[in-house]
Amino acid sequence: MEETxxxxxxxxxxxxxxxxxxxxLRIVATLAAGRNYVSRLAREMGMSxxxxxxxxxxxxxxxxxxxxxxxxxxxxxxxxxEVTPFALRLTPQQIAVAARSLSGPTDEGxx
Length: 111
What we know:
Keywords: DNA-binding, Transcription, Transcription regulation. The chain is α+β, with helices and mostly antiparallel strands.
């Protein structure tokens, strides 16, 4: 297994923001058991497909899951989702490194 680099500050914020939602946390937990297609995942999660799609978009934007289309034997296009291998290491030192790479405003001018 190859070692992944620590996320940048912006990547870390995206990942933590995506995982801070209980629905998205449950989606990742469900997909940890193996890939699934969207319709079945929606049924298993007990949520509508539009709501699931919204959560999947946030998880994909954060790089936590990925999806691709496959054609079933009966010719239906099915979108499969799977967890993208990731590991988060949250130590004060790792957060300090990530914070230095953040884009956007800082708190320095707020005083």
